[in-house]
Amino acid sequence: MAGQNSFCFPVKELSNERVKxxxxxxxxxxxxxxxxxxxxxxxxxxxxxxxxxxxxEFTTNFLEKVVDANDSxxxxxxxxxxxxxxxxTNDPDGxxxxxxxxxxxxxxxxxxxxxxxxxxxxxQRTYVTANAYGLLLQYALDPPKRGGLGLRRVQCNISSANCxxxxxxxxxxxxxEGVIRWHYVVRDGVRKGKVGMGTSGMSKGGEGxxxxxxxxxxxxxxxxxxxxxxxxxxxxxxxxL
Length: 241
Hints:
By secondary structure, this protein is an alpha+beta fold. It has five helices and eight strands, in the order ββααβββαβαββα. It has helices spanning 26-37, 55-67, 128-141, 163-171, 222-238; strands at residues 14-15, 19-23, 74-80, 95-106, 111-119, 153-159, 175-186, 211-221. It has an eight-stranded mixed β-sheet, sandwiched between helices. A hairpin with a 4-residue loop joins strand 4 and strand 5.
């Protein structure tokens, strides 16, 4: 909800005792998120979008043109409920800790991706990311009788160079299904501080400072969720990853 879009699945707040995911509202969460993230452009090193020099650029080029333009996207603000609220006008339940959401969701195929996820530096290497990710998994894969959507598949696409995110995703119970070589060309990636991929010495994906990216594809399906995935995710959420 940047403007707001109409997500193809029902939308609700997701919460446990540590973390709350609430729909990301541009006017409410955008200014604080941009102010806290813009000094750290490396947060965007492994993703296609950003970094954003101005709040207007973040709002227009990402929230409006990517999130609001697609009913397959749903973006949440991550709230750390264990910390004092950073701005009472934003959320009374805690401090803004980042953003995370679904993308490429399909009602027809009962599937979704967990798309862009950025945890602000002050909240990294804590319980925040695991709980935010776990709440998305629970809502997507739990059956309706447990309050979930009852989807059949959750997918996560990660730059193959992003070793930290890959290890984290595996700890959450997702399984590596393969690597798509030269999946994207990241335009002007050198100037933007992106991490390029490909064979050593051949990371250029296009002209000038463009970079190529290989993508590691992770999946967690409903049958694995019922067998072991739910408990794996719960264990990660209860620990300090």
